[in-house]
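I wish you would study the pair of lines that follows with an eye to the fold:

===
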Amino acid sequence: MAKGISDLIADLDTIVSNFEEAQNETIKKLLSDATIEVKKRTPVDTGDLRDDWHVDINGSSGDLLNTMDYCEHVEFGHKTKGGKSFVPGVFMLKDTYELMNSHLDDYVKYFWSKASGRG
């Protein structure tokens, strides 16, 4: 904790110099954790859907992606081939988003520990 103005300035300088790296590390951690969680929630038939989850990080942002053409049908549900019944959605991505959102405070703490040079 800063004891005087010079300590406060030093702390702010540390945060400014560590900001980008702390931001990138936090994004990587959040997306890595999200990937683990969404894979846990993804149903397995052949394993292709679960195995296709991957992260695309571009600078200070990133995406959790799945390129399997049937992923959306598993997430939200779909009619059967004859159209007589409906297979409900699994909501693996929605549930993962809600879980990650509920832990947002932890990611903010992680970021500040990295930015302040204390983590």
In short: The chain has a mean pLDDT of 94. The chain is about 60% helix and 15% strand. The CA atoms of residues 9 and 111 lie 19 Å apart.
